[in-house]
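ok trying again, last paste got cut off:
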Amino acid sequence: MNYDSPFAALGNTSDTGEVEAQVGDIVRSFAPGHDLSRIADTFGLLDRAFDGGLPGYQKLKTLYHNRTHTNEVVLCSVRMLHGLHLAGQGLDADHIDAALIGALMHDVGYLMSDEEASGTGAQFTSSHVLRGVEFTRRHLQALPADVLEATTKVILLTDHRKHPDWVTFDNLQQQRAAYATATADLIGQMANREYLERVLFLYYEFEEAQLGGFADIHDLLEKTTAFYRMTKGRLDQDLHGMSVHLAQHFSQQTGADRNFYQESIDRNLDYLNRVVNTEREHRLEYLRRGHVVEKVLELKDHR
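nice, full thing came through this time. structure:
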């Protein structure tokens, strides 16, 4: 593989089938014989739910917190679990499942029921984590009780407005599962090749949630570097610097002693610096990936 672009090394997270296959391959590489049926069932549940095929629910409408984001989080999570295994801190089978099912379900709280008539689901930004826990308890009742409990704690820890101490863990395995997925939630999105473009979608989600703090999309772009510095503090301190284990995964899988996630984040931040140092009226010309800008301009036209 050509590693000139670290983004390429992270894979195509817009293809759910490819992501599920990679997750299975990586799990089997460090836990041979692991029963992947619970994880497969959860992929299938999300396929139905996000596509509008789950009775009682509308299809997923949020633009930033979409299936691609879920895919990038579960793929980053399984790479983290592999790295933890290589470091002698691996998880047992039930906690592997809890970490990865929690990664898949961590943003399911943005789904709207049929009774919730207006909005995209972004209005639930502040409550989506608890909504996701409720959804998981309702739709994954077939999981053993202890696995379901660990899974809900994984989801709870992805509420990055709160210190991890707000979740009480029963054992070290639970904690590692949750910390791995919470770390992947932050790193996976910031390393995405289209992250800077997708930040424009995030502005509209924040606006719908009435969170405030940003005057417009340019203000959000200008504050993204500061957001990363704050996030790095959470990753290194609150979440115990668990992201270092990603380099161990890539070293064994590719033979390259590199952390492609960090390299991708660094590239995004370097490019962001160029964008925000450009006059506002020309910035969107530099954000051409994924046809995001066209969708953003369409959103503006409809307001």
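cool. The radius of gyration is 19 Å. Residues 9-301 form a domain with the Catalytic domain of cyclic nucleotide phosphodiesterase 4b2b fold (CATH 1.10.1300).
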